[in-house]
Design brief:
mainly alpha; 20 helices
Length: 432
């Protein structure tokens, strides 16, 4: 095996350049297609091909010592593949059109937690070219920071540019984290070239990049011992998407828990204060989503197959998530490792694990490049398979075979890793 300390970097750098060109060609082709929704099988095939190229890039970064030229290839390649698809209309999800509707509601001074697209008189706020198909009688489930972002932008291309901008900000923050932890900067490729990340933000325009960028900023600040600012930014990440709450106990570890917990609660309360008029409806959209939606799930599906109702399965899954948080606390995991452990656990146990949700685990993989989870960030594009029927006006329906293709190799690999680790520990215990 070549030594990372070797002096020759030319060949791996040229190999990286070739991979960047290959990845660019794939996303350039996707950027030229008129409608990905009508070409979902072809899209999945190209996305999986991009995953193979991506895996080769991760291999080079992990195996060889690389120089400044290679880092430039990685960063310029990351920008280029995003620019290749950024101009095209959002595809594979209608979420950006819901963002636009909620932004219009917000700008009119209407409480988005008290109304829904089905509210009389508000249909005119929909994009006439893309009327909303789902959740018409469900009020917003997004927290206030996301609502403010939706109100700040007016056009569909604007949402894509905004959330791709936060995606690029996440790359910059990862470089800062890698430098702070004295790890090779080239590992940023794990996030920067990840096909699921590019599809989620530059193609589909999802808002998760806002929450991901703010949680990375919070982790950077906690590493640099700025707990107050870190806690405030963690609260902002929570106010963009609720996932970040899982890290709060880790942020409070070894600190003035009451003071920083109070700071977190104060930031969240101040953000929700303008919407308090919605009363009991403030979280009705979130509860309706939890009660009525289930998609691309894995372990949660198995919990339901054991004979549980959806509500019972959610209770069981919630207990497991809390157990994972307790384990992270007991082991005193550092924030990036905890983020990978907890977000991956949450996604496995969640009733909804849409492909763009897996972007949450990619940043931590820059520091803990776990092979099965890297594979999952590639196979998760199989979760777009139901778009084939949905785009044709049929109900959203998943194929058990496609879900198995997405998850079974990942869980088999994770199980093998666990068995091998247990076997090594047993051998070590016997020899001692």
């Amino acid at each position: 095996m070549p030594d990372r300390s070797g002096s020759s970097t030319l060949l791996p750098t040229l190999a990286l350049l070739a991979l960047a060109l290959g990845l660019g060609a794939i996303f350039r082709a996707l950027g030229r297609w008129h409608s990905l929704n009508s070409l979902v099988p072809e899209f999945i095939a190209l996305a999986l091909a991009a995953g193979v190229v991506y895996a080769a890039g991760v291999f080079l970064v992990e195996r060889y010592r690389l120089g400044v030229a290679a880092l430039l290839v990685i960063l310029l390649g990351a920008v280029a593949i995003r620019l290749a698809v950024l101009p095209r209309p959002p595809s594979l999800s209608d979420d950006t059109y819901r963002y636009q509707w909620e932004g219009r509601v917000e700008r009119l001074g209407i409480n988005p937690y008290a109304v829904s697209p089905g509210t009389p008189g508000l249909r005119r706020l929909e994009n006439p070219a893309h009327p909303l198909k789902t959740g018409r009688n469900v009020s917003t489930l997004y927290p206030p920071l996301s609502e403010w972002a939706f109100a700040w932008v007016k056009t569909i291309p604007g949402y894509k540019r905004l959330f791709t901008g936060f995606d690029l900000a996440a790359i910059a923050l990862l470089l800062g984290l890698l430098a702070s932890l004295k790890q090779p900067l080239h590992r940023v490729l794990v996030y920067a070239w990840n096909p699921a990340v590019v599809v989620s933000f530059a193609i589909s325009g999802h808002h998760d990049s806002l929450a991901i960028a703010t949680v990375l900023a919070a982790i950077l600040l906690i590493i640099h011992r700025r707990p107050a600012l870190a806690t405030a930014l963690l609260a902002l990440s929570f106010l963009a998407k609720f996932f970040s709450i899982l890290l709060l106990p880790l942020f409070l570890l070894k600190r003035a828990r009451k003071a920083y917990a109070g700071l977190f609660v104060a930031v969240v309360a101040l953000a929700y204060l303008p919407y308090i008029g919605a009363g009991r409806k403030l979280f009705s959209g979130l509860s309706d989503y939890a009660a009525g939606w289930e998609g691309n799930d894995s372990l949660f599906r198995l919990i339901r197959l054991a004979g549980n109702s959806k509500a019972q399965a959610e209770l069981v899954a919630g207990v497991f998530v809390l157990a994972l948080v307790a384990l992270a606390l007991r082991q005193r995991m550092e924030p990036l490792r905890a983020a990978l452990f907890l977000f991956a656990g949450l996604l496995f146990l969640s009733p909804n694990a849409f492909p763009w949700y897996f972007t949450w685990i990619v940043p931590s993989l820059c520091f803990y490049p776990n092979a099965p989870l890297l594979l999952l960030t590639v196979t998760c594009v199989l979760g777009y398979a139901p778009v084939v029927a949905y785009a044709a006006g049929q109900p959203w329906k998943e194929s058990a075979f496609m879900v198995a293709l997405e998850y079974v190799p990942v869980f088999a690999w994770l199980a093998f890793q666990a068995w091998r680790s247990f076997a090594r520990q047993s051998t070590a215990a016997q020899s001692s």
